């Protein structure tokens, strides 16, 4: 099948080659391709640092083409139907893509001048996804066993990359991007390990890790400008600063102190570390924004949120991010326990329109999903199926958040035989997501039979969620037997 896809891509490239896509200028590059089963009429190509944001419209054959002038070696993001991937573009490149939205990453193939480096980059993403499944298993093992697993995996990936470059030489820039993607994926897994192995309540045992466990930190560059859009680099920085702040926590607290990931001082320590170690404005602002958002999402204290925001405002230079976080705080203020759920419009599979309050007639759990996150929507629906069996008198509402044509939503729920009586989508997704402060899919809202909020933000995948739900129900004196 993969061989067939490559042949089809080559034919496509030859067909489009009949058009004028030759790249003769030394500072020019071409980017084009074909989207199978498109979830919209456009592809967005962008890079914040280069201040590039180009909208590339699909033609009647679902193809697009774009010439970029004054190209410097850059990693661009391209987005279609809510999915995001990356492409390395350098002067004289003429890169074509072909992908099927039903298997976005798995079907993505590059052809043309500049294809080899991009196909290898995508391969590293796919390998990282596969390897992540082993991470949970090895994260339960002793530090020495885990460290050996990561070291062997890392070396194997680097050796494979060296063999690739020997056969198909690529530029120093492209090589640095791909190697960084390999390196930072492995470094991130080591930063995440203590939270999984020790658990949040026993992070004091960080001091018991092998002496050289974090030796790789000497290679960390907090200002990798060309990687600022890359997932694994940002994943590393997020987990790295979480981890560094734990050390700060225990410098200021006795070792027997219970570590609390939601504590204000711990989260302010993250901001202080980012501010002191990161110089690049884009990378720093991004880290400050998401670390502040994480705290705001889980804090019930207005005083603590104001304190965190004061720290954030003294460090960020992004007016756009400030406006976003202030809007988030305003939305969360309207989602306090006891308040009525905002009266947003939902649409069912028969295209009938309702308000959320109209479909709530019992204590109800409301969860969200996207057709672009297959693993999440399969897991969330399976988890809810378990909860339905345990809480048969409770209501469950599943809301799709996509803003693309509803055929993709309907195809998914029919394909996986989701319960049609509990499936809805937002009439106005962008407004609804902002109003309900849904900035990550794991957020779940629990309401009573009058659609009044019991808890605006729970995680059904937490191992003790059933007990949490029972406690919520008892506090509201609701009987669900």
From TrEMBL:
Residues of the signal peptide: 1-19
Residue ranges of domain Thioredoxin in the record: 335-481
InterPro entries linked: Thioredoxin-like_sf, Thioredoxin_domain
Keywords attached to this entry: Signal
Protein name, UniProt field: Thioredoxin domain-containing protein
Natural source organism: Winogradskyella haliclonae
């Amino acid at each position: 099948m993969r061989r067939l896809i490559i042949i089809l891509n080559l034919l496509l490239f030859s067909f489009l080659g009949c058009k004028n896509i030759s790249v003769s200028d030394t500072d020019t590059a071409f980017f084009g391709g074909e989207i199978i089963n498109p979830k919209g009429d456009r592809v967005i190509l962008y890079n914040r640092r280069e201040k590039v944001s180009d909208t590339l419209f699909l033609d009647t054959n679902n193809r697009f083409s774009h010439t970029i002038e004054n190209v410097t070696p850059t990693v661009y993001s391209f987005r279609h139907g809510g999915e995001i991937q990356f492409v390395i573009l350098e002067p004289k490149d003429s890169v074509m893509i072909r992908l099927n939205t039903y298997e976005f990453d798995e079907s993505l193939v590059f052809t043309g001048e500049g294809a080899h480096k991009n196909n290898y980059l995508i391969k590293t993403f796919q390998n990282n996804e596969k390897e992540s499944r082993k991470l949970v298993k090895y994260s339960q093992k002793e530090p020495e066993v885990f460290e050996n697993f990561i070291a062997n995996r890392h070396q194997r990936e680097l050796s494979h990359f060296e063999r690739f470059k020997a056969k198909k030489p690529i530029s120093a820039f492209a090589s640095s991007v791909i190697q960084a993607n390999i390196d930072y994926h492995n470094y991130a897994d080591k930063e995440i390990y203590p939270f999984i192995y020790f658990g949040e309540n026993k992070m004091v045992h960080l001091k018991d890790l092998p002496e050289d466990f974090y030796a790789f930190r000497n290679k960390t560059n907090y200002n990798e400008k060309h990687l600022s859009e890359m997932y694994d680099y940002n994943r590393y920085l997020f987990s790295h600063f979480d981890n560094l702040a734990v050390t700060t926590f225990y410098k200021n607290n006795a070792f027997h102190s219970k570590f609390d990931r939601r504590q204000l001082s711990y989260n302010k320590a993250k901001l202080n570390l980012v501010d002191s170690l990161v110089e690049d404005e884009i990378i720093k602002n991004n880290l400050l924004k998401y670390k502040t958002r994480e705290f705001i999402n889980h804090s019930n204290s207005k005083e603590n949120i104001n304190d965190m925001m004061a720290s954030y405002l003294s460090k960020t230079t992004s007016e756009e991010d400030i406006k976003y976080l202030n809007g988030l705080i305003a939305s969360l203020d309207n989602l306090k326990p006891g308040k009525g759920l905002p009266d947003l419009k939902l649409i069912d599979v028969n295209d009938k329109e309702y308000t959320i309050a109209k479909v709530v007639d019992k204590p109800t759990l409301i969860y969200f999903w996207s057709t672009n996150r297959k693993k999440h929507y399969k897991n969330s629906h399976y988890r809810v199926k378990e909860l339905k069996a345990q809480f048969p008198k409770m209501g469950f509402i599943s809301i799709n958040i996509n803003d693309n044509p509803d055929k993709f939503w309907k195809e998914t729920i029919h394909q996986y035989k989701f319960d049609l009586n509990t499936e809805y989508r937002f009439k106005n997704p962008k407004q609804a997501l902002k109003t309900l402060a849904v900035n990550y899919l794991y957020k779940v809202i629990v309401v009573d039979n009058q659609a009044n909020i019991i808890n605006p933000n729970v995680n059904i995948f937490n191992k003790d969620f059933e007990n949490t739900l029972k406690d919520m129900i008892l506090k509201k004196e609701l009987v669900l037997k």
